[in-house]
Amino acid sequence: MSSSEKRSIVHLDLDAFFVSVECKKNSAFIGKPIAVGGSTRGVIAAASYEARKFGVRSAMPTRQAKMLCPELIIVGGDFEEYTRYSDLVTSIISDRVPVCEKASIDEFYADLSGMDTFWNLQKFTAELKQYIAKESGLPISYALAINKVILKIATNEVKPQGTIYIPAGSERTYIAPLSVQKMPGVGPKTNEQLFKMGIRTIEMLAEVPDAYLIAKFGKTGADLSRKAKGIDESLVIPYHDPKSIGTEETYQRDTMDMLFLNNEIIRMVEKIGYELRSQNRLAGCVTVKIRYSDFNTVTKQRAIPITNSDHELIATAKEIFHQLFEKRVLIRLMGIRLTQLVQGTHQIDLFKDSEKMISLYQALDGIKNRFGKSSVMRASGLRKR
Ligand SMILES: [Mg+2]
Questions:
Q1: Which DSSP state fits 246?
Q2: Which residues pair with 35 in a beta bridge?
Q3: Which of 107, 171, 264, 312 is catalytic?
Q4: For the chain, which terminal residue's Cβ has fewer other Cβ atoms within 10 angstroms, N or C?
């Protein structure tokens, strides 16, 4: 499809998703300030609208949330259940639209371009929302417009249980009066810089010459400039759900060197752990495979509480390996695979992890994203070759 062609896209976003699922499981939570998150040392993964009135936000340390709202009820996450509901909503949407993108566990873009020949799209999306509410019992908001940036802003504006249609041509007028903080991609740091430049609204940002924004923010500046004018040509990318993430290695020389093999486990888990976190997933099962020099191949798997933490995955993989390895002949190949994948982010897994550990993973992955995947490894994972 050419980019100049007007598209029709709907953005559907479940309202306070984790909390909504918890309220379905326990109706006593309805109308109360509740949050899904870790206990004392953890962080908040999601907060109910009642809790948000007190200033409770996701990614906030639980301690701080409790200070803001002493009666806050904290519930541990049930990610199997969230994934089950997410899959249900995904299938409802995918069954009814030509192209569906699952942007996160509770957020979808559907490209309806071309459907307007046969359907009234406003009616179609309204019915889709009703159907999702009826089948899943979960509240959802949506926006219908021509591109993702407008949609993302608009859905946030109308939440919860809101709907909005922005006719083609009126995008810029719609976003113009809103605060620049509402633009996707404007985090606290960029917002502060814009604030210092005297830029408060999206319209003010749209009026700054591109060259100035590019000089100040680089490539991000060019993006900001286009988005502020309501322009976004990014496509709706069809949903793809990998069932597993794994890696394996055949060794040049068959080996029984335990130090080497231990380091290999660390290296492999760090590789797939990074991939897991980049896809915003957590794993519930680890499988180790060993092929001996006589080509006999054995595997063993173990279910674990879902996690995306390298240190937990490494510990499990090592335990499985030591149970599996019979030390009868040399090892020719070793592989590690993660399955039972569910969607979720760093913050979510942190029920057991300390805040310090979370920021460590975020920092490490940030470096990997910028400088390449092999730029950071545990010291012992480095010894391979
Ligand atoms: Mg949501």
A1: E
A2: 47, 74
A3: 107
A4: C
